[in-house]
Structures are given as C-alpha cells and as structure tokens.
Design goal:
417 residues, transferase, alpha/beta, Rossmann fold, globular, 12 helices, single chain, 23% helix, 12-stranded mixed beta sheet
Length: 417
C-alpha cells in the first residue's frame, strides 16, 4: 500500500499503486517468460467514484410507526418482520459508533484534503456522473472452496514428510491432493503464472501459500514461526447464512486455531473484526487471552471513494464506512529475540486510521505491510490466515487462498490503466 500522505491520526494509502508495484518488472528478474508476459492488477477493481448509498437517503432515526402496522404503508410486499426497537447488539454498535465518530471525522478529513492536493483524489466531473457499474469478474471460477473440502478426509502426514513445492515458470501444478498437502513457494523476484485445474493464476514474487481446510494445517505448523500474523476469520452472521457465500466458523472453532504454535516471540497478532460488538468483545476478552495475546489497540480502516466521500454515510444505520482491526502482542516467551536484538521500535499506537479507496472484490482487505513497517523489525516473517490473495514476502493460508490471484483479475501490462 503506497502511502499518499500521513498524519498523527493515520495514513491515506493507494492500494492500487502497491498491487501494481508487486507485479511490475524487476531489474533483478531474469525470468524470460515473465519479461514476455507481464501483468498488472486491473484498475477498474479500485474505481469507486460515488458512495454505495447516497447520503441524503440514509435513515438517521427510528421510524415512529412500524411498517407492518402502518395502515398507510405503500409497500405491500411481504418482508421479514422486525420490531421498531433496536436489539441489544444494534444498541451496542450505536454506542461504539458514537465513541469513535469524532476520531474518524477529525482524523480522516485532513488526510482527504491532502489527497486532493496531491491529486490522488479528484472531484467528480460531469463525465463521471453516470451510473456506477461493476466490473466483469472471473467468468470461470474454479470453486477452490469446494475443492478444499477434500482436505477434511485426507490423512495427516507424519512429521518430516511435509514437502515444499518450489514454483517454476508455466508450471502445471500436480494433483489437487498434493497441493493441499504442501507449502507452495515462489522464491524468485518475479511473478509466476501457474496452471491449476484448467485455470491460470499469477503468484507474486517471494510468496508462499498453503491451500487447505482448517482441519489440515499441519504443513503450516512445520514450516516457520511468524513475527506478524494477520487474520480475517469468517465470522458467523445472518447475512452469510442467508447468502451461503462462504462457510463461517463459530467462536469456539476460531479459538482452536493454532495461533500460539505459529507465533514467534513477541509476534504481532492482528484480527479483522466486523462491526458487531459481540465479535469485538470476543476477540479482546476471550480469544486473545486464551492465546496469551495482550491487546494493544484498535485501528480502523476507513473506506472512501475517489472523490473523497465515505463509501457509506458515517451516520448510516445499515452499514458503516469503516472496519476494525484489533492489534495484540503474543506473550508466550519472556526473553524474546526482539528485545535482545537491540532494535528500538516505537510502540503500537492504540488508535490509527487507514484510509483508502477499497477494492470492489467482496471481503478484500488492504495489505498492512506498508503501515506496519515502522513498528516491526525489517525482514520479519509474516502470515495471513483466511487469505484470498497472496502478498510478496508473506505466507498465506486458506481454502480460497488463490481466489483473487485468478488471471481474470489482471490485465497485460501494456493494456493496464
């Protein structure tokens, strides 16, 4: 994530610029195939010109009459009934929102103003005032999640049997079961195009991944210890159950993740949390204490349009234009290598804002490597759990870990925006 500007409150970042940097030609790259076939991330995936919900249409107060009991209601379609009053979860979310609104407003506005000065953000023109269309996405999905259900019935390999598959250009990956059993690495300075189950995927340089179900994480446990672990768990919620978009995990299942076994001394643990307060409380009061992780702070990712507006109105009762990250420090070892190294690092701030134009892909989170640089040692080992895309210098794990690496999300470099 290229930092456009920075303030004491946080950063305005350009995700698209960072993604393009990951896949651009490197002078140290000697791969002839890569020099012939270079790709860049599609610019339309980050082209959000207008808010998803216009500000003037946002409800800001409770209706005084329930729709289902209002005799003058014009909408006669049958809808799922709900009471006029907010439930406890909604009240908790509103209370939390009140506490952070001023910080988000006061911290975001100077960054947006500086973004206009640096021409990263621009006011809408007359030509931009058309209906916002969604890009055509991945016409031939390979259904990786369904494939990874195979992992549940696979026998675990014995210690020492876990292998690492090192990628070569144009590689056709072996049978699915082999891929699910081992770490796959791109050790080179160049992106690699691989073929897997009849589809093409672009693997960024210096990256590694394990595609598996939660029941088959053994290869990851035998691979490395990590100084940064970021995870975006598939939280349970009603909309996910209705849409069946992905399988969710219960709080108890999330607690069973082997994070302490993966963490190096003083590992920085970062968890993406939905705006449901029960999830935030669970992470801070149950999950982190069980993992011997001490909570350090709550950061917020604020999503804006190219014209500098929140993607959802800040006072929206439906969705908020921000998401929460809970940062903590693994306390499993007293004498840590970090303290013995003599490197002086600033403490993790309790509050920070990451402001960016988000990707249009569902549940696509911004990379955190750029904003974390000043708080961690150089060349640390980094892991993302429940990943849907890969990052240079990181190991990624999940049952959809290659999803956003599909070639449909890229364009030949000479045709990139």
């Amino acid at each position: 994530m290229t930092v456009v500007c920075e303030s004491s409150a946080g950063w305005l970042v350009d995700e698209l610029s960072l993604f393009r940097k990951w896949y651009q030609h490197s002078t140290s790259c000697q791969d002839a195939d890569h020099k012939k076939n270079q790709y860049g991330i599609r610019g339309d995936l980050f082209l959000i010109l207008r808010p998803h919900i216009p500000k003037q249409s946002t409800p800001v107060s409770l209706p005084t009459v329930c729709p289902e009991t209002n005799p003058t209601a014009t909408n006669q379609k049958k809808k799922r009934k709900r009471s006029c009053a907010f439930n406890q979860g909604e009240l908790d979310a509103m209370d939390y929102h009140k506490k952070i609104t001023d910080f988000i407003l006061e911290g975001t506005q100077p960054l947006i103003q500086e973004g206009f000065k640096k021409l990263f953000l621009q006011a809408l023109s007359v030509n931009d005032n058309h209906s916002q269309t969604e890009p055509g996405l991945c016409n031939n999905p390979c259904q990786l999640a369904e494939l990874c259900n195979m992992a549940k019935s696979m026998p675990l390999l014995n210690f020492g049997e876990h292998t690492v598959l090192v990628l070569e250009s144009g590689l056709y990956l072996p049978q699915e079961t082999n891929v699910l059993s081992c770490i796959t690495e791109n050790k080179s300075e160049c992106p690699k195009v691989i073929h897997f189950i009849g589809e093409k995927y672009i693997i960024p340089p210096k990256s590694a991944f394990l595609m598996s179900d939660v029941s088959c994480m053994e290869p990851l446990l035998q691979y490395k210890k990590y100084n940064i672990i970021v995870m975006d768990p598939p939280w349970e919620n009603k909309s996910v159950k209705r849409s069946k978009r992905y399988n969710s995990l219960s709080p108890n299942e999330i607690q069973q993740l082997p994070v302490p076994a993966l963490a190096a001394p003083d590992c920085l643990v970062i968890t993406w949390v939905t705006n449901k307060q029960k999830h935030l409380r669970f992470v801070k009061e149950d999950l982190y204490p069980q993992w011997s992780v001490r909570t350090l702070g709550e950061w917020h990712w604020v999503k804006i349009t190219r014209s500098g507006e929140f993607v959802f109105p800040l006072d929206s009762n439906h969705k908020k234009p921000y998401e929460v990250l809970v940062l903590g420090r693994f306390q499993g070892t007293v004498n840590s290598a970090g303290r013995e190294s003599g490197i002086s690092l600033p403490p993790i701030p309790e509050r920070k804002l990451i402001v960016s134009v988000p990707c249009k892909l569902h549940s696509h989170k911004p990379p955190l490597s750029e904003v974390l640089k000043e708080y961690v040692k150089p060349d640390v080992e980094c892991l993302e759990l429940f990943a849907r895309n890969l990052q240079p210098g990181w190991t990624s794990w999940g049952n959809e870990v290659l999803k956003f690496q599909h070639i449909d999300y890229f364009t030949p470099l000479d045709a990139a925006d």
